[in-house]
Write a structure and sequence with these properties.
The chain is α/β, with parallel strands linked by helices. The chain is built from 21 helices and 7 strands. It folds into 4 domains: 146 residues, Rossmann fold, CATH 3.40.50; 65 residues, Helicase, Ruva Protein, domain 3 (Orthogonal Bundle), CATH 1.10.8.60; 90 residues, Up-down Bundle (Zinc Finger, Delta Prime, domain 3), CATH 1.20.272; 75 residues, post-AAA+ oligomerization domain-like (Orthogonal Bundle), CATH 1.10.3710. 50% of the residues lie in helices and 7% in strands. The strands form 2 sheets. A 5-stranded parallel sheet has the order 2-3-4-1-5, with helices on both faces. Strands 6-7 form a two-stranded parallel ribbon. Helix 5 links the parallel strand 2 and strand 3.
């Protein structure tokens, strides 16, 4: 746990005699030096007004890595001249929470506010989150939690009701480049740069200022006090993956974008999101599984070949791995994007499941039951069943295959696109035959 970090707004916890990463040395100490987040911190915005007026409140800072959550918490504490405590939900437990409460109570007796900053707060379980509630409620400390995950899913409602949630955004490239220019000035050795170097690092940083400064420091070490060339930057960037949080919000946002692009018949956008996920280290087999789902949910019987192609791509990935498998997945995604669309199967499945949940379970009608034994035959199982292949056109007009009270229930409504247009025509024809049939079971 870190304590007494701020005697004034520009004090930094990282001060010391050992090595400090460039990102640590450049941590802003005031809002004027803070990069990005104008939607929260521009002049006149409520959060900025609260900080500048020291009318502080407990809050949750939600956003991707490297956008300033920890820095902002420190600036808040510095502006209020509050005692600053920091714990990490990854490394801390209930004992650390109790220690923080005891320290905050001590400073409160001295008339000084305490700000407790909890990093990765979503990693605390429900009981640990509940431990904060009474002390947030009575003002023992100002609580600031930082999370990369959606608070609505990861945090207790009781904690959310006592805090305000602020959504921080990925930094824009202009903000990253401004941070990188500050980073150049702070390097131990004077380094000159070729045109385009900082822009290249900013693109690779993917909205993460900490990552941008780390990449700059790596490139500067390779330059060894000389000119930072494009070639040196590219060498430093080798093997650097773009931001991708497996299992987190960013992960689900990107697979959602891929799914919606396919559904929207946008093959180029779908291919972009596929490559973004692969570039970030996503397991291709996960994408292959989702592509199979897309084939059934959004294409369905409008083009049944889509499902076959999706399964083939999955199998290629399993058998051959990368890059052959990834190319097969790309082929399937492009095909599905261009295919006729129908969610009729998806809607029919949902409707049938909902009906079963509402209506309960009816017995199978006797004529549809199997009769492998004499006992079952004596109970008239299968009696009067009409074998469709023995009927004209292999269709038993007027036959009913539902439980009696659900007769004529319809879930599947084919669309007028692709193969489903033909399916729709056939089903309409068969239903018309049923209406005109002289044999109507249960009537």
């Amino acid at each position: 746990m870190t304590s007494d970090l701020f005697d004034h707004p520009f004090c930094r916890s990282e001060q010391g005699t050992g090595y400090q990463p460039l990102a640590a040395r450049l941590r802003p100490g005031s809002l004027d030096d803070f990069a990005g987040q104008e939607h929260l911190l521009a002049t006149g915005k409520p959060l900025r007004q609260a900080i500048e007026s020291t009318q502080l409140h407990s809050m949750i800072l939600w956003g991707p890595p490297g956008v300033g959550k920890t820095t902002l918490a420190r600036i808040v504490a510095g502006a209020a001249r509050a005692h600053f405590l920091q714990i990490s939900a990854v490394l801390s437990g209930v004992k650390d929470i109790r220690d923080a409460v005891a320290t905050a109570a001590h400073y409160r007796q001295q008339g000084r506010d305490t700000l407790l900053f909890v990093d990765e707060v979503h990693r605390f379980n429900k009981g640990q989150q509940d431990a904060f509630l009474p002390f947030v409620e009575d003002g023992t400390f100002i609580f600031i939690g930082a999370t990369t995950e959606n608070p609505a899913f990861e945090l207790n409602n009781a904690l959310l009701s006592r805090t305000r949630v602020y959504k921080l955004r990925s930094l824009e490239r202009k903000d990253i480049e401004a941070v990188l220019r500050r980073g150049l000035a702070a390097l131990e050795h004077d380094v000159t740069t070729e045109a385009g170097c900082l822009a290249r690092i900013a693109r690779q940083a993917d909205g993460d200022a900490r990552r941008a400064l780390n990449l700059l420091e790596q490139a500067a070490d390779l330059a060894n006090g000389g000119t930072l060339s494009v070639q040196i930057v590219e060498e430093a960037l080798q093997g650097s993956l773009r931001r991708f949080d497996k299992g987190g919000d960013l992960f689900y946002d990107q697979i959602s974008a891929l799914h919606k692009a396919v559904r929207g018949s946008a093959p180029d956008a779908a291919l972009y999101w596929l490559c973004r996920m692969l570039d970030g280290g996503c397991d291709p087999l996960y994408i292959a599984r989702r592509v199979v789902r897309i084939a059934s949910e959004d294409i369905g019987n409008a083009d049944p070949r889509g499902l076959t192609l999706a399964l083939d791509a999955w199998q290629v990935q399993e058998r051959l791995g990368s890059p052959e498998g990834e190319l097969a997945i790309a082929q399937a995604i492009i095909y599905l994007s261009c295919a006729a669309k129908s969610n009729a199967v998806y809607l029919a499945y949902k409707a049938a499941r909902a009906d079963i949940g509402i209506e309960g379970t009816d017995e199978v009608p006797p004529h549809l039951r199997n009769a492998p034994t004499d006992l079952m035959k004596s109970m008239r199982h299968g009696e009067d069943y009409r074998y469709a292949h023995d009927e004209p056109d292999a269709y038993a007009d007027g036959e009913n295959y539902f439980p009696e009270r659900l007769r004529d229930r319809q879930y599947y409504f084919p669309v007028d696109r692709g193969l489903e247009q033909k399916i729709k025509e056939k089903l309409n024809y068969l239903r018309e035959r049923d209406k005109n049939s002289t044999i109507r079971r249960y009537e």
